[in-house]
Specification:
Elements (H helix, E strand, L loop, with lengths): L4 H13 L8 H7 L6 H14 L3 E4 L4 E4 L11
Antiparallel strand pairs: 1-2
Helix pairs in contact: 1-3
Length: 78
């Protein structure tokens, strides 16, 4: 298994730097991260982050988004 430590930190930093918007699709994350990011590696890193609890999924029913778990608190009640 590859080590995605730097990529994971870049994803967390990206989410924490965003003001107002808290949910992003994988392509949005890829476009906004610095440098050339391989989508396959980004998917693998975000999957690891979901398993670790660093990121969470949020689904609108037709689209799946990624978000930090603490920003999702209270969304279940909506």
């Amino acid at each position: 298994m590859a080590d995605y430590t730097e990529l994971k930190q870049a994803v967390v930093d990206f989410f924490k730097s965003q003001k107002g918007k808290h949910k992003f699709m994988i392509n949005d994350i890829k476009k906004k991260l610095p440098g050339e990011i391989n989508k396959k590696e980004l998917k693998a890193a975000t999957s690891e982050m979901i398993e670790e609890g660093t990121l969470a999924y949020w689904s609108s029913g037709s689209t799946t988004y990624f978000m930090l778990p603490e920003t999702g608190e209270g969304l279940e009640e909506l």
